[in-house]
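Consider the record:
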Amino acid sequence: MDDVTTAFRSAFGYGPEGVWAAPGRINLIGEHTDYNDGFVLPFALPHALTASAARRTDAAVRFRSRQSEDGFEARLPDLFPGAVEGWAAYPAGALWALRDEGYTVDGLDLLVDSTIPTGAGLSSSAALTCATVMATASLHGVDLGPAEVARLAQRVENDFVGMPCGILDQSASMLSTEGHALFMDTRTMGTEQVPFDPSAAGLNVLVVDTRAPHRLVEGHYADRRRACEEAARHLGVAALRDVADLPEALAALPDDVARRRVRHVVTENARVLETVGLLRSGDLRAVGPLLTGSHTSLRDDYEVSVPEVDTAVDALLAAGALGARITGGGFGGCVVALADADRVEACEKAVREAYRERGFAEPAVFGALPSAGARRLYP
């Protein structure tokens, strides 16, 4: 924390009024289900974004990041959808969303620092947005609960940045607790903290940053969401979560693409519920095949995987991982795997060798422990 307060003072010439932290997330299972009113099971990473901030009373906005040479300065009236590009769009959107919903907030000086790998599908943007909403609200006397922060942060991505995401990432960042996965019903917004302690079962959660750029605003994500909404309308249901008879639904759909998209969402919801049941019973090893089944579905039915991701999954499974899958929205990003602790080294070696053979960029491999959600660090 001393680093960000010192950096804030260096950037702005005075000390911050507060420091907030919001973590990245891994989604254990439940991909592309959140915008279909379905079920998700993420957990927070120890990697987090830290925001030091101070309020202003002159409608001026100044942002700095220790991960970027590009600062940002503007005035509050100049913050509207489409007006800001790059990383600064997320904190700018946070200010816009608060004001657009009628909260009285003025200007802000903000400095951020992050250990969340960018472009890896670990929700660095959600962490940035959540941290800025928390900081701005707190400094201007606006009392927001964690779920409301998550909702506002989702609105920033939807309405300001132009990314039609569900609420998984923001909820994981705001609501997660250490040693648990967050089971969430995205229709009711009901949540349950499900105990998840892989190390106690002799297991490790491995994350492979495939270094395949994770790009979702380019239209692929929106195409998948639109296909699901069209299929739901065709089937006469509010959302694909309501499909009760999958074979009947598939027979009623007009084309094979729609059938594949629906099959993924319906079977993925079932995999989430089965995984939650296994975690409740303590049978963590049995989760592995569900992860692999999720990847197969995302690769073949939802078509969001890429060669770097498939190579990592195949290498992990060949080296003895219990299960592995793409995590996040897809089209690059990270792979999450469950493996016995004594197979971790072999799994990492296998991925690196497979990448060298294919001529891919060197991947990053690290362990992930379910960690605490967003919080104020100071004062």
Remarks:
- The mean pLDDT is 95.
- The radius of gyration is 21 Å.
